[in-house]
Design a protein that fits this description.
By secondary structure, the protein is an alpha/beta fold. It is built from ten helices and 17 strands. The chain has helices at about 40-45, 50, 70-85, 100-110, 135-145, 230-235, 255-265, 290-295, 305-315, 325-330, and strands at about 1-5, 10-15, 25, 30-35, 55-60, 90-95, 115-120, 155-160, 160-165, 170, 180, 190, 195, 215-220, 240-245, 270-275, 300. The strands form four sheets. A nine-stranded mixed β-sheet has the order 1-5-2-6-7-8-9-12-13, sandwiched between helices. It has a four-stranded parallel β-sheet with strand order 14-15-16-17, with helices on both faces. A two-stranded antiparallel ribbon has the order 3-4. The longest helix has 13 residues, at about 135-145. The relative contact order is 0.11.
C-alpha cells in the first residue's frame, strides 16, 4: 500500500486490478500490455493530492478479460475490508472495461458498506496522447468526496457519467462514451464544479458470497441453434444455465426442447434477452416462445443483460434451486 498527500483530511482507497487504464504500448510489439501499477496511475494525477489522501492497494494487474468468479470473491473481500475502516471515505476500483460492468454488479450484490465505490477504467491506454484514464480517476475521487455519493451503490463512472452497477453496460468498443444505462438513464454527472446526482437506483439487493462459486454456463440462441450446447451443459456439470434469447425471451423449437431437458434434469435455466433495452417477459405462446418456456419451468432475468443474469445466478444458485425463489431474486 502507498500513502499519498498525508496532510489531507479525507482518505480514499484505490484498488488496482489492471485493464487498459494500466497498459502502455510495448516497444517490441507495439501493442498495449499491462505495465502500470495503481501507484503509477495515481502518481500521474498530481491533482489527486490536492483534494484527498490516497491509499493504493495492488490487487492484480490483468486484462479485465481475465476477471471472473475466480477473482471476484477476493476483490469483494478486499474492498469490504478497506471500507470497514472508519478513516476511509470510499473506494475507487481501477478495472478494464470489457468486464467492468459484471465486476461492478458482483460488488454491488456482495458489498455490505454504504460508502461509495466507484469503478473506473479507460478506453485508451496510457501511451495514447489523449488517454482518458487520468480524468476518469480524478472524477472518481471527486465523486467519492461528494456528500451525496453515500448509499448510491457501486457505480461505473467514465467520461463524467455516473451509472448504476445493475443497469450499466458497455456499448462501444473504442469510444470514450461507451457506458450507458439504457432505459434507466444515468445516476448523475461529475461536472467541473461539483458532482450532480439526479436519481438513485432502487433495484438493489445483497447476497452472501458462497464458499464455492458454482458453475453457471451462458449459452446463446442463434438462428438455427439445435440445443446441443444446452444439453451438453446440463450433462456436463453446469449447476445452472443462462440462455441469451431473442426479443422478450424467445428461442426456436430445438432450443425449447433442450431447455426442457435441462430443467427436467434439475438444472435451472434462466432466460435473458440479448436486446439492449427492455425486459425478458414470457409473452409468446409458440413452442420456444417465452410463455412456453415459463410453463417448462424457466426463470426470466427481467432487464438484466445475459452476463449479469449469470452474475446473479452465481450468488443465487447456492441459496436455492426453487424456480419461484430464483424468480424472486431476478424480480428485485
Amino acid at each position: 500500500m502507498t500513502a499519498i498527500a498525508a496532510e489531507r483530511p479525507t482518505l480514499v482507497a484505490i484498488v488496482a486490478t489492471g485493464g487498459t487504464i494500466a497498459m502502455k504500448n510495448d516497444p517490441v510489439t507495439g501493442a498495449p500490455v499491462p505495465a502500470l501499477s495503481g501507484a503509477d496511475l495515481v502518481g500521474a494525477v498530481p491533482k489527486l493530492g490536492d483534494i484527498a489522501r490516497i491509499e493504493v492497494t495492488e490487487f492484480s494487474n490483468v486484462p479485465s478479460d481475465y476477471m471472473g468468479p475466480e477473482l471476484w470473491p477476493g476483490l469483494s473481500a478486499k474492498v469490504d475490508e478497506l471500507l470497514a475502516r472508519p478513516d476511509i471515505a470510499g473506494a475507487v476500483v481501477l478495472h478494464g472495461t470489457d468486464t467492468l460492468d459484471q465486476t461492478a454488479y458482483f460488488l454491488d450484490l456482495t458489498l455490505r458498506s454504504t460508502k461509495p465505490v466507484v469503478m473506473v477504467g479507460a478506453q485508451r491506454n496510457a501511451s495514447d496522447a489523449d488517454a482518458d484514464g487520468s480524468r476518469n480517476l480524478l472524477n472518481a475521487v471527486r465523486q467519492i468526496l461528494s456528500p451525496d455519493a453515500v448509499d448510491m451503490g457501486v457505480t461505473v463512472t467514465l467520461n463524467h457519467h455516473i451509472n448504476a452497477a445493475r443497469e450499466v453496460r458497455k456499448t462501444h468498443t473504442s469510444n470514450v462514451e461507451t457506458f450507458n444505462s439504457g432505459d434507466a438513464g444515468t445516476l448523475g454527472y461529475v461536472d467541473e464544479d461539483r458532482v450532480v446526482f439526479s436519481r438513485k437506483s432502487l433495484r438493489r439487493q445483497t447476497l452472501p458470497i458462497p464458499e464455492r462459486m458454482p458453475r453457471i454456463d451462458l449459452v446463446s440462441m442463434y438462428a438455427g441453434a439445435d440445443g446441443t450446447q444446452v444439453r451438453q451443459s446440463a450433462d456436463g456439470g453446469a449447476e445452472a444455465i443462462v440462455v441469451e434469447a431473442y426479443g422478450f425471451g424467445n428461442v426456436n423449437a430445438a432450443m425449447h426442447d433442450a431447455i426442457q431437458y435441462a430443467i427436467a434434469k434439475g438444472v435451472p435455466v434462466v432466460v435473458a434477452t440479448k436486446v439492449h433495452n427492455g425486459r425478458a417477459l414470457p409473452v409468446y405462446g409458440f413452442k420456444g416462445g417465452g410463455n412456453t418456456l415459463l410453463k417448462a419451468g424457466a426463470v426470466f432475468a427481467d432487464d438484466l443483460t445475459p452476463d449479469k443474469a449469470r452474475v446473479l445466478a452465481l450468488l443465487a444458485i447456492p441459496l436455492t434451486h426453487d424456480r419461484a425463489a430464483l424468480q424472486a431474486y431476478y424480480n428485485r
